[in-house]
Amino acid sequence: MLRISAIELLNKHLSESSDEHVLVAARGGLELSFLSSVQKITVYGQGREMFFTELVVVAMSQLNPIGLETILGLNKAGRRVFIYHQIRSLLSERCRDFWDSNEGCIRKGVLIDEEWEAFLRLVGYPDLRYRWKFLASSLLKKMIKKNEMSCSVEELKRRIEERKDHKMVFPWRVVHLQEAVQSANKKTILSAPERIAFVYQDLAQVLSNQPNGSIQQLILWDDVPDIMQAFHSLQRVCSPKASIWMICEEKVESWLHTMSDRFCWKRISADHFSYDDLYWITPK
User: 238-248 and 215-221: which strand pairing?
Assistant: First the structure.
């Protein structure tokens, strides 16, 4: 599931970054706009989230802000498919094949999540009263299973109830989402796209191909068991002053406490409905 609203959290910490190499898990792409001074960015992942991220990153580097808003679905402008075909040739072959087969998603706006929108309309969001009380649990159970979320129904209900007044809880509803995004210049959001590499691999695979101490920032999403299993490799590829960002559905304090002799960490609360926290981890 896309985690695009974490850009507000990451903005505070990444905008001044001048690192040589940053490794980013594919979950949205807009956060890459903060890495304007980074020399090399590797985006890794597989499946729909990788296709989405590659499309967004290429759009940020080629389209003006209005064009980017249009292809995301954040304005009422038309011609989304026309804009897609303007940047189509710059996508990888597998990414082109995916979006060619899913032009309907582009026509509606690639950020728009119609399933969640249907759910929100059905329960009367944000006025969470009778329909929410009687329908939410059964509907959320189906949504959790379909989206392979790790949280419980009760936890997801809590997040939505407590965060319903936060504008980024359902980010595709934010008309001016790009206010949280830094513009590289007046024409495009992202400069120097040639420094970005898209690697269609999982975390273990991409780490195995990185030299020792070569990465200064890592932005990781979900898949906590995979992160735990690969943490030895993460330590190997990180430079001595590296920062590791983990955005995840579940709390991982107990696991982080076991490494407190080697790492410092802090938790930052999130607004998004589908994850709870962002963790910042640095070596001691």
Answer: parallel
Q: Is the peptide bond before 126 cis (omega within 30 degrees of 0)?
A: yes
Return the exposure string of 101-133: e unless at least 16 CB atoms fall within 10 Å of the residue's CB, then b: eeeebbeebbbebeebeebbeebebeeeeeebe
105-141: per-residue pLDDT in tens? 999 888 888 889 899 999 999 999 999 999 999 999 9
pLDDT digits (tens, 9 = 90+) for 22-50: 888 887 677 777 777 788 889 998 888 89
Q: What are phi and psi of 218, to 5 degrees?
A: -125, 130
CA–CA separation, 263 vs 236, rounded Å? 14
DSSP-assigned states of every residue in 251-266 = --HHHHHTTTTTEEEE
The residues pairing with 44 across neighbouring beta strands, listed in sequence order, are 25, 199
- Nearest in space to 23 (alpha carbons), one of 266, 203, 230: 203
Q: Parse the chain into domains and list their residue ranges.
A: 4-111+177-283, 114-169
> What's the pLDDT at 95?
96
Q: Around Cβ 202, how many Cβ atoms within 10 Å? A: 15
CATH top class, domain 4-111+177-283 = alpha beta
pLDDT at 49: 86
